[in-house]
Amino acid sequence: MGSGPARTGACTAPARSVDVAIVGAGYAGLAAGLTLARAGRSVAAFDAMHPGEGASSRNGGITSGSIRPSHAAITRTFDEATAYAIEAESKTAREFLYDFIRSEEIDCDFRLTGLFKGALGFGQYDTMARGAEALAKRLGIETYAVPHGEQEQYIGSGFYRGGVVRKDIGGLHPGKFHAGLLQLALAAGVAVHGHTPVTAIRREGATFRVQTPSGTVEARQVLVCTNGYTDGVAPYLRRRLVPVRSRIIVTEELSAEVMDRLMPQRMMMGEGRQLGYYYRPTPDGKRILLGGRESGHGGDATVPTQRLRRGLAELFPELEGVHLSHSWYGNVAMNRDMLPRIFEKDGIVYASGFCGSGVVWAPWVGTRAAHRLLGNGEEGRSALFSRPPAAVPLYRGNPWFMPAIIRGYALQDRFAWWRSKR
Questions:
Q1: How many other CB atoms are found less than 10 A from the CB of residue 160?
Q2: What is the pLDDT of residue 53?
Q3: Residue 187's closest CA among 41, 57, 38?
């Protein structure tokens, strides 16, 4: 699965002044830097780790662009017009990503495979089927219900009671996509500094002084795209984003016969549980990748890896004793209303909060934020430009409450399972 990113200007002294300094060199930061550099701006992007080392390469590569809150929930938080606009923008963001990959000729194993989402019981299937019908009418997305009797055409598992298919979702190799995006940014003139954490951002009149261990840079504008790796250099953002580990396991190579039986259409996969799994064939079609959320941030990978192994066997009993070749994680970032956001505070623009769907949202949001900095009114327009997400009470960077929240979700899943009509 691995594909290392291109060499960057790690540990080299940055320029003394630039037009725009970007904090974070994942999908969002690089997409923004590329847009700005091609518009003639001088850009320096700083990453505390190796660029792409976080969730931009350590994710499942599913191009979902999901919106977690329901239409009704978004309407309650904002208004109905905003709810419709955000839903429509999720479709636009996916189309933008697909066109970007094609037009820039990024070799990242992208395939528009479709996605199957499984229902726990027949009651949930009915709800999902109605939701698919409404989504098709509202946005013109090709999506349809799959009854229990037909689901073996999509998945070789008896765990679900039907589901829905969305044809506008596919998969890519996340490491290759980041490497391609990085190469484009470097070719456009973006100075990308890996292993160079930003330690302070201070406003001095009309400019900012961005401090790093390799030197201080004067910038006219600053864009923060740190998402699940936000630290103390952006305290305002950190109080509003909670990092959550997304752990992934990958099986050993499976025979073509097994892959044909378990994933006959090689689709991306999801399910209707709060702590549901996402899974897919690897880009080469020879293994199964499965991921889910972790409750803590400790270093021992054994417990969460074994939990995912049990989940894999629950879905596919014949894989009970399969060997695993890989286990890794990346931090996603959640906020209180579970929506991506672009906002400005004290002259600094923030583009983060992708809530586990950054493969689609991060390049889109980074590009919109860049157009905002350029003053491009129409191209910078987005329903995600709004007030900042609310701060999380008593939170200053240590997600001490996550184990309790994960246990709560697990209880909800058990209750939903008990109530489901199977």
A1: 24
A2: 94
A3: 38
For the four alpha carbons of 148, 280, 314 and 67, in that order, the dihedral sign comes to negative
Tell me the C-alpha distance between 210 and 143, whole Å.
47
How many CB atoms neighbour CB 291 within 10 A?
Answer: 23
Q: Looking at the DSSP assignment, which residues form a beta bridge with residue 111?
A: 171
Domain 1-110+171-241+336-391 falls in which CATH fold? FAD/NAD(P)-binding domain (3.50.50)
* Predicted pLDDT of residue 321: 92
CATH T-level assignment (fold) for domain 115-167+243-334+399-422 = D-Amino Acid Oxidase; Chain A, domain 2 (3.30.9)
DSSP state of 150: G
Q: How many CB atoms lie within 10 A of CB 161?
A: 21
Question: What's the pLDDT tens digit per position in 269-323?
Answer: 999 888 889 999 999 999 999 999 887 666 677 889 999 999 999 999 999 999 9
pLDDT for 414: 84
Q: How far is CA 8 from each of CA 29, 32, 49, 210, 281, rounded to the nearest angstrom?
A: 14, 17, 12, 19, 31
DSSP conformational letter for 13: P
What SS3 class is residue 345? strand
- As given in the structure block, the two tokens for residue 338 are 């579970």
Separation of alpha carbons 216 and 225, rounded Å = 19
pLDDT < 50: residue spans in the chain = 1-7, 9-10
pLDDT value of position 69:
87
Domain with CATH 3.50.50.60 in the chain: 1-110+171-241+336-391
Angle, CA of 371, 377 and 380, to the nearest 5°: 35
Q: Is 250 in contact with 289 (CB distance < 8 Å)?
A: yes
Angle between helices 27-38 and 358-374 (to 10 degrees): 30
What is the model's pLDDT at position 297? 63
| 236 φ/ψ angles, rounded to the nearest 5 degrees | -65, -45
Type of residue found at 53? E
Tokens of 180: 């391609």
Residue 415, pLDDT score? 83
Q: What is the spatial distance between Cα 116 and Cα 144, in angstroms, rounded to a whole number?
A: 10
DSSP state of 380: T
pLDDT number for residue 2: 43
Q: In sequence order, what DSSP letters do the residues of 301-312 get, joined into one string?
A: -HHHHHHHHHHH
Model pTM score: 0.94
* 241/330 Cα distance (integer angstroms): 15
